């Protein structure tokens, strides 16, 4: 299991836990269950976890598929620097967030899932993984005409007059397919579609 | 649109039947629990959420029954083989087994959500009515004793007003197994997302075996009989229609209504999942038995670009073109099985696979074989299993597209055709093959080079140069390579591959290719086979639809995609 980046799976699990927390919280609050205020907390915690986990981190090896529209959240998450980069902090944060939701049956599933995600993040942190943001690649603008400084001042070198006669004589003798002074090394076809 | 319908009509029909059954089962169970007199008193406490929970439970049973079936590879292979008289389109449905497995999984997730939410409301209702002291019908019903001596005909599973719903959840079989099942399901789903599956196959493989807990928990989930309905005897004596209004007088001696008695609904999930579980156990036993058979490695070839070729022999092994096997290397990992397409032809006396580095397991395997001075690691083989490539030789005209290492099934097909030509097999239905190989770097070509070179020679000798029309495309080119190629344009053979057919650069323009094929074969059925990425599948599928004529007698393109 040398190459597995556990943080990637922890991220999926945490995102799912966030959604489960939100759902459980809505059910508890809307149904006005006993101690429904834990449900309200669960909704807030779930939204926070979802926003934090939405931007996927960059894989160490290979290309990473971004989630749709994640660049906005990436900018926000990046701002917190080491708080969001370090997975130990994330593991502890998720564990703490999951505890209050454990007091209500409707949200206890969210607690369990978030606690599992916290455990996987801990494993990722122990193996030295870090969250690196996926930066958009700067588009290289083609340097049009970057090397053209000035038009040439001298005509191109030409072979002396005697050498110039030979190609034209050969052309007359061979009666080759190419008519005219220009010989194309690669046949150029005029494609009319 | 017409072409899409024709090509997909069986899939659409199958899915419509499945969805229809789901809807039917849901509505049927919902109405039963909502209207039946047996559950009149239960409904008095719980309301409509009882019916909701039971309806989603029935759908969960149904879908849990279905989910194990698409992954029984050996069973599907057997069905494929026995259905050789069936039409081609019918057999193609078996290719979509993994898609169906995922759809059923999504339906299970949906119904799990409905079931859990409904039961949360149910538990809350039970808890409130247990704590209510207003003498309402609900509170009297909840007070019915749990004492076994008095018949144990309770209704409310919450035995005392002090008991919390959390306590009941974790001490009842139904609650505990429910929690276990749901956590197992969530872990399975999060580790099976496309991203995780493609990048870290081992995480997916091992976590997905949590399904064992899911199935076991599902089997015993209903044992506690928490869903209670009135007994027959009690209904005959004191029918709810007559007695529900007079609930204050149930205990009076002169009232002809007695206290209602309840019994639990027996567990029925095991009835649904028993047969698929047995089939799946047989499947795993079969896989194990096949894997124990001795595999002899006859040749190991290390190709450039880190591609390992293994030629093997196994007693009783017989294959068709384009099939795949699962291999396991106990010295690297005891439990992991990875799929690889066979690259040898059935006519050869060995079978071979080409492996390239794609993750932990493959890297360790290649490293283990690279060491020349230690013993060759033991390999276990399960298979072969059939996929769409078996059908290639059934089409008059075949268009084969392989991207990168995805060319491997077609390597097997081309080799097989070479052997058939050598034996002058006139039963060959295929009259023309168009082969496109799209690759990023040149190094990966080399092991396939020899095959194409010998095929070229073969075709020339037999005078059938136009049977195989192949184009090679290099997508990872740079100006150096192109310049080099342009300079060597006049040479008879390609500078990169040594083949007579020149390598093209960039990606093929499929519209041009398809229209050329359509005009050269106006009355044929053309099979298009792809082993490659999803984006390429989309463009090929579109071209197939666009260039298939609506008249079934004229040119028809059928699209087949390899799925792993």
Explain what the structure shows.
The complex is a heterodimer of chains A (193) and B (564). Chain A has 193 residues and is an all-alpha fold. In chain A, 55% of the residues lie in helices and 0% in strands. Chain A is built from seven helices and no strands. In chain A, helix 1 (6-30) packs antiparallel against helix 2 (37-53), helix 1 runs antiparallel to helix 6 and helix 5 (87-101) packs antiparallel against helix 6 (105-126). Chain A is elongated, with a radius of gyration of 33 Å. Helix content of chain B is 49%, strand content 14%. Chain B contains 21 helices and 14 strands. At the A-B interface, helix 1 and helix 6 of A face helix 6, helix 8, helix 9 and helix 10 of B. Chain A: The chain crosses the membrane at residues 12-30, 36-54, 103-124. Chain A: It comes from Callithrix jacchus.
Low-confidence stretches of chain A: 168-179
What is the molecular shape of chain A?
elongated
Kindly report how far apart the N and C termini of chain B lie: 28 Å
> Largest inter-chain interface?
A-B, 30 and 32 residues
Described by strand count, sense and barrel closure, the largest sheet of chain A is: none
Number of helices of chain B: 21
Task: Describe the global form of chain B.
Answer: elongated
Total number of helical segments of chain A?
Answer: 7
Give the rounded overall mean pLDDT of chain A.
81
Beta strand % of chain B: 5-15%
Strand tally of chain A, please? 0
Terminal residue distance of chain A:
55 Å
Whole-number average pLDDT of chain B? Answer: 82
Query: Could you tell me the radius of gyration of chain B in angstroms?
Result: 31 Å
Oligomeric organization of the protein chains: heterodimer
Q: Please state roughly what percent of the residues of chain A sit in beta strands, choosing from under 5%, 5-15%, 15-25%, 25-35%, 35-45% or over 45%.
A: under 5%
Instruction: Give the % helix of chain B.
Output: 40-55%
């Amino acid at each position: 299991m040398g190459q597995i980046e556990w943080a990637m799976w922890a991220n999926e699990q945490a995102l799912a836990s966030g959604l489960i927390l939100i759902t459980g919280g809505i059910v508890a609050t809307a149904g006005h269950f006993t101690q429904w205020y834990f449900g309200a907390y669960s909704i807030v915690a779930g939204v926070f976890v979802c926003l934090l986990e939405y931007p996927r981190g960059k894989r160490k090896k290979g290309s990473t598929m971004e989630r749709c529209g994640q660049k906005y959240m990436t900018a926000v998450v990046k701002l917190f620097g080491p708080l969001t980069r370090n997975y130990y902090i994330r593991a502890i944060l998720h564990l703490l967030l999951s505890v209050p939701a454990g007091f209500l049956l409707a949200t206890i599933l969210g607690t369990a899932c978030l606690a599992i995600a916290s455990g996987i993040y801990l494993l990722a942190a122990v193996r030295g993984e870090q969250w690196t943001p996926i930066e958009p690649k700067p588009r290289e603008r083609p340097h049009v005409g970057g090397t053209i400084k000035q038009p040439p001042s001298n005509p191109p070198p030409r072979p002396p007059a005697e050498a110039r006669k030979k190609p034209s004589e050969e052309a007359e003798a061979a009666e080759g397919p190419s008519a005219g002074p220009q010989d194309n090394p690669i046949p150029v076809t005029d494609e009319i579609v | 649109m017409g072409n899409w319908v024709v090509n997909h009509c069986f899939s659409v029909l199958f899915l419509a039947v499945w969805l229809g059954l789901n809807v039917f089962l849901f509505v049927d169970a919902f109405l039963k629990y909502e209207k039946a007199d047996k559950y009149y008193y239960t409904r008095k406490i719980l309301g409509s959420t009882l019916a909701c929970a039971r309806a989603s439970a029935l759908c969960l049973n149904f879908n849990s029954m279905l989910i194990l079936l698409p992954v029984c590879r050996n069973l599907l292979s057997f069905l494929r083989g026995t259905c050789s008289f069936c039409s081609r389109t019918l057999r193609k449905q078996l290719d979509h087994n993994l898609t169906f497995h995922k759809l059923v999984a999504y339906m299970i997730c949906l119904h799990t959500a409905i079931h859990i939410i409904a039961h949360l409301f149910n538990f809350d209702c039970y808890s409130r009515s247990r704590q209510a002291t207003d003498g309402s019908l609900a509170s009297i019903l909840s007070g019915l004793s749990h004492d076994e001596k008095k018949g144990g005909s309770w209704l409310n599973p919450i035995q005392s007003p002090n008991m919390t719903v959390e306590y009941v959840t974790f001490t009842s079989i139904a609650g505990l197994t429910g929690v276990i099942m749901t956590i197992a399901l969530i872990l399975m789903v999060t580790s099976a997302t496309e991203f995780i599956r493609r990048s870290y196959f081992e995480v997916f493989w091992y976590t997905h075996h949590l399904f064992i807990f899911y199935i076991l928990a599902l089997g015993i989930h209903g044992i506690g009989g928490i869903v209670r309905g009135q007994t027959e005897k009690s209904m005959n004596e004191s029918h709810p229609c007559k007695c529900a209004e007079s609930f204050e007088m149930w205990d009076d001696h002169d009232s002809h209504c007695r206290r209602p008695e309840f019994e639990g609904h027996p567990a029925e999930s095991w009835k649904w999942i028993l047969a698929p579980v047995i089939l799946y156990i047989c499947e795993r036993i079969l896989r194990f038995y096949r894997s124990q058979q001795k595999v002899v490695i006859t040749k190991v070839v290390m190709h450039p670009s880190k591609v390992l070729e293994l030629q093997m022999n196994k007693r009783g092994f017989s294959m068709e073109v384009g099939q795949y096997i699962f291999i396991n290397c106990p010295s690297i990992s005891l439990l992991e099985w990875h799929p690889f397409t066979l690259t040898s032809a059935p006519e050869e006396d060995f079978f071979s696979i080409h492996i390239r580095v794609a993750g932990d397991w493959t890297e360790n395997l290649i490293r283990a074989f690279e060491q020349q001075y230690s013993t060759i690691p033991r390999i276990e083989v399960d298979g072969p299993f059939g996929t769409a490539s078996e059908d290639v030789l059934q089409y008059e005209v075949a268009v084969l597209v392989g991207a990168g290492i995805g060319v491997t099934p077609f390597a097997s097909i081309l080799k097989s055709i070479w052997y058939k030509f050598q034996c002058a097999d006139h039963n060959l239905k295929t009259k023309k093959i168009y082969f496109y190989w799209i690759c990023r770097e040149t190094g990966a070509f080399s092991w396939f080079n020899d095959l194409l070179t010998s095929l070229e020679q073969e075709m020339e000798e037999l005078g059938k140069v136009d049977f195989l029309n192949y184009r090679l495309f290099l997508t990872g080119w740079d100006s150096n390579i192109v310049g080099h190629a342009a300079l060597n344009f006049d040479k008879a053979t390609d500078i990169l591959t040594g083949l007579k057919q020149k390598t093209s650069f960039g990606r093929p323009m499929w519209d041009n290719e398809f229209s050329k094929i359509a005009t050269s074969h106006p009355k044929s059925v053309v099979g298009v086979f792809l082993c490659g990425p999803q984006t390429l599948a989309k463009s090929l599928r579109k071209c197939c639809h666009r260039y298939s004529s609506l008249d079934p007698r004229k040119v028809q393109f059928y699209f087949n995609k390899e799925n792993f």
